[in-house]
Design goal:
about 110 residues; mainly alpha; Chorismate Mutase Domain, subunit A; 3 helices; about 85% helix; about 0% strand; elongated
Length: about 110
């Protein structure tokens, strides 16, 4: 018979894993923001279909290895990629605005 303490232990471990997921997501978006600024400085496009395809392939392989539903894994990836691109656009625009303001402050055009 399963004891309530056993269920609580499993729930506690799930909570710990959820906390790790959130920490990793935060770390990922810290790098996403940096990447958006760098892409603006290098005048590179935000979208990179080849990179997105690589990630999809990697995630599908990982899903299979972990015994996860590939559709679920791809849905999560697509949401993360969508939000990552949006954040990179925001950061790139901020960098362009900052560069424009800096260029204009010294009298140059």
């Amino acid at each position: 018979m399963i004891e309530l303490e056993d269920i609580d232990l499993v729930r506690t471990r799930i909570r710990e894993i959820d906390t790790q997921i959130l920490r990793l997501l935060g770390e990922r978006f810290t790098h996403v923001r940096l990447l958006g600024r760098w892409k603006a400085l290098a005048e590179l496009p935000i979208e990179n279909p080849d990179r997105d395809q690589e990630l999809r392939a990697d995630f599908l392989t990982g899903a299979r290895r972990a015994g996860l539903d590939p559709d679920l894994v791809l849905q999560v990836l697509e949401l993360v990629l969508e939000r990552s691109r949006a954040e990179q656009h925001v950061q790139a625009q901020r960098e362009r605005d900052r560069s424009s303001a800096t260029a204009g402050s010294d009298g140059s055009v």
